[in-house]
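Consider the record:
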Amino acid sequence: MDSTVEWFVADWNPATDKQAAARVWRDGQKKQVYVYRFITTGSIEEKVSLHTVRTALDKQLQLKC
């Protein structure tokens, strides 16, 4: 059984990612589930992804200070 989700839909909703991972994971499974996003270079999805990562990093840095 696979433990990987390949995500082609760019909705940028973290709840959707968790739902996709939950659909792959089964009771008693010991492997971690991975969710991969495929993003085209130069697309709006790439810009949103970079912004999301930067925002998350900024929040982590603020918590440490």
